[in-house]
Amino acid sequence: MEYGKLPPGSTLKPTPFRVAVADSQVADLRRLVSFAHLGPETYENLQEDRSLGISYSWLAHAVQIWQTQYDW
């Protein structure tokens, strides 16, 4: 799915908007991510086909990116 294009047949037109998040809220989120603790690997979260939700490896990689590379 391309998120930059409207679906065919769309009748509503997007309007520009600005997102504003207080620095204190961003700091709180960064602190929470730094406390992230992944649960144990299970049969369900080891399935990489997403049939049972996100996988352990996907979540572990996301946390690592949020902690070390994400531009907050």
Task: Please summarize what this structure is.
The protein is mostly helical and 72 residues long. The chain has helices at residues 23-34, 56-68.
Please bin the fraction of helical residues. 25-40%
Main sheet record: none
Number of strands: 0
Distance between the termini: 25 Å
**Pattern of helices and strands:** HH
Low-confidence stretches: none
Radius of gyration: 18 Å
Any overview of this molecule?
The protein is mainly alpha-helical. It has a domain at 42-72. Helices cover 35% and strands 0% of the residues. The chain is flat, with a radius of gyration of 18 Å. The mean pLDDT is 91.
What labels would you give this structure?
single chain, 72 residues, mainly alpha
Task: List the SSEs and their pairings.
Blueprint: H1 23-34, H2 56-68
